[in-house]
Amino acid sequence: MRCSAKGCQADAEWALLWNNPKLHTPDRRKTWLACDEHKQSLSDFLGARGFLRDVEPVSA
Questions:
Q1: 5-44 pLDDT, tens per residue?
Q2: Are 13 and 34 in contact (CB under 8 A)?
Q3: Phi, psi for 36 (deg, rounded to 5)
Q4: pLDDT above 80: residue 48
Q5: Looking at the DSSP assignment, which residues form a beta bridge with residue 14?
Q6: How far apart are CA 5 and CA 29, in angstroms?
């Protein structure tokens, strides 16, 4: 699995679970994957919009 950051080809280490409360039911979770380098920037992007719900390690 690859990182969701634009142009990144690194293996994903983290699952960023999110939802947009204007579009999704409260229990719905969408997933972006992140490498260690992009974990913070993707988390910040989702967090600034109030979408980030949880960050978990990607299981092998």
A1: 999 999 999 999 999 999 999 999 999 999 999 999 999 9
A2: yes
A3: -60, -35
A4: yes
A5: 34, 57
A6: 18
Residues recorded for the chain: 60
Is the predicted pLDDT of residue 60 greater than 90, yes or no?
no
pLDDT score of 59: 80
Query: Half-sphere exposure of residue 7, counting CA atoms within 13 Å on the CB side?
Result: 0
SS3 letters across the chain: CECCCCCCCCECCEEEEECCCCCCCCCCCEEEEECCCCHHHHHHHHHHCCCEEEEEECCC
Write down the pLDDT at residue 39.
Answer: 98
Token readout for 56 is 């978990």
